[in-house]
Amino acid sequence: MIRGVIASANAPAATGAAATGGTVTDIDVGGIAYRVHTFTESGSFEVTGAAVEVDYLVVAGGGSGGGANTGGGGGAGGMLQGTTMISAGSHAVVVGAGGIASATYGIGVNGESSALGGLIADGGGGGGRSQISSAAGLSGGSGGGSGGRWTESSPPVRATGTSGQGNDGGIWTLAQSVGTNYRTGGGGGGAGEAGDDATNSPLSYGGDGLSSSIRGTPEYFAGGGGGGTNGGGGAAGGLGGGGKGAARYTGSDWFAGAGLPNTGGGGGGGSDTNPKGGNGGSGIVIIRYRI
Questions:
Q1: Which residue intervals define the domain Glycine-rich in the entry (predicted)?
Q2: Quick one: CA dihedral 147, 151, 155, 156, positive or negative?
Q3: Which candidate, 65, 77, 134, places its Cα nearest to that of 104?
Q4: CA–CA distance from 41 to each of 21, 115, 271 (Å)?
Q5: C-alpha–C-alpha distance, residues 237 and 239, integer Å
Q6: Is 92 helix (H, G, I), strand (E, B) or coil?
Q7: Phi and psi at residue 232, in whole multiples of 5°?
Q8: Mean pLDDT over all residues of the chain?
Q9: Alpha carbons 269 and 146: distance in angstroms, whole number
Q10: How much of the chain is in helix, strand and coil states, percent to nearest 5?
Q11: What is the C-alpha separation between 235 and 142, in angstroms, rounded?
């Protein structure tokens, strides 16, 4: 099983192979014709004839945001991209679901892993919660952010991302006041950068994801969720489908945002008036080869 990035600067060579599975589209990139198979749910990639060299993108489901007063943003699902050979035959494709947030004060839930055969991307880590005490986020493809500081004197353990797939979640720091003044959860990590640490600002952004042009145009995947806050506006999630953190204002505009479907984005953290975190976004698997 491979849990790191296998990258290649070379375009896959054209072959006589044929394949089925997922949603199939043909694209042209700089005069080179490619066939693209996009899986938004689990299935199989069936290759007939010769083995085929493919580009791939595998993104796991994002973690859900933490609940309560100042929940941490959910970590993005792990992201793998590169080039590999796939033999003739049937190859399992697994598309992981995003983590489902608890109703109110719970810690976020990790997303599910996605896979293309032995290439496995780890689900994003759930965000921590903050209610009477602060809880750390959970490690995953990218780590979830911690809940905001309550009365603790030492910051929580930082939730880590899987090497080669994502980054760490943010934590509250000693710069964040004890009490009610701008308690903020840490931002969830993204595939491209770590989530923001929480200071005395009401905004802890989710880490940005990474761009892929596997379908012909640049698209971002695997952004972390923004941390929830009891002051100011909610923090934005990272590029690549991360959900925004909740704010203390009333009304649905200030609820925690969910990670976008089929991006692996993490869900936003909850706030005091809107304690429910956002759900994580589902993952995706994309395969392309020259025709």
A1: 42-290
A2: negative
A3: 65
A4: 11, 11, 32
A5: 7
A6: strand
A7: 70, -170
A8: 91
A9: 9
A10: 0, 25, 70
A11: 18
Q: Residues 70, 44: contact at Cβ < 8 Å?
A: no
Residue 215 has pLDDT above 80, yes or no: yes
Dihedral sign, CA of 46, 51, 56, 62? positive
- Please spell the DSSP secondary structure of 113-180, one letter per residue: PEEETTEEEPPPPPPP-EESEE-----BSSPPPPPPPSS-SSPPPPPPBPTTT--PPP-B-TTSPSSS
Q: In the structure encoding, which two tokens stand for residue 220, read together?
A: 């971002």
Whose tokens are 């083995």? That residue is 51
**Contact between 226 and 218 (Cβ < 8 Å):** no
Prediction pTM value? 0.93
DSSP at 254:
G
Q: Cα 37–40–43 angle (5° rounding)?
A: 70
Tell me the two tokens of residue 72.
Answer: 């941490």
DSSP 36-80: EEEESS-EEEEEESS-EEEEEEEEPPPPPPP-BTBPPPPPPPPEE
Give the residues across from 198 on adjacent strands: 172
Q: Has residue 98 got a pLDDT over 80?
A: yes
